[in-house]
Predict the 3D structure of the following.
Amino acid sequence: MTDSIAENWSELFREQALTTQDERLRVFYEQGTVAADSPLSDVPFVALDFETTGLDAGSDEIISIGLVPFDLNRIRLRDARHWLLKPRRAMKEESIVIHGITHTELSDAPDLNRILGQVLEAIAGRIVVVHYRYIEREFLDAALKRRLGEGIRFPVVDTMAQEAMLHRQGIGSLLKRLVGRKPESIRLSDSRNRYNLPHYGQHHALTDAIATAELLQAQIHHRYSESTPISDIWI
């Protein structure tokens, strides 16, 4: 995402509200997004995580969505949501090994289109937080294009990108590579370990959403000020 677009999300939302065809998307865009200069202490966040049938947004499907709203001081578990979804294509066996969701569990699950309004309502007006934006943002965009003929755009804060800036860039990271040391892992669980956050089981969408919310709270506490504008960390 270019800096110019990242600085004009509010304008993009206004434009999309006027041109989108799907009523649920129109309502989502009409809710707008926070101003670029909003301090982090004032920003309503929502952590979002997907489990998918694979890693290719163009051909693979979302089979589980977990989300939880939060701010810098509180994670609202009472308002957390979790859905299982039926994919339009058969799951790959290797993906079942990772997330543990079986064909039987999904046999009576709805298609994404049936619960889309609930998902959009849950994230509307909030800044979405993910651990690796190329899953949640790209998969949702691709899934809507297949179902509605139009995609979706929204700003995100990527906790993996935050860790990458600290541990994968700069002279320190270069020196480590030169002497043959492996780069620091920026996986969700390893990133949490660096902030002494508790261990959670992985590859459950709601658990991973909660873990991502906690990670961002820790990242902001250690590296930013509550007065830092959201534009400094969104993408």
Remarks:
- The longest strand covers residues 62-70.
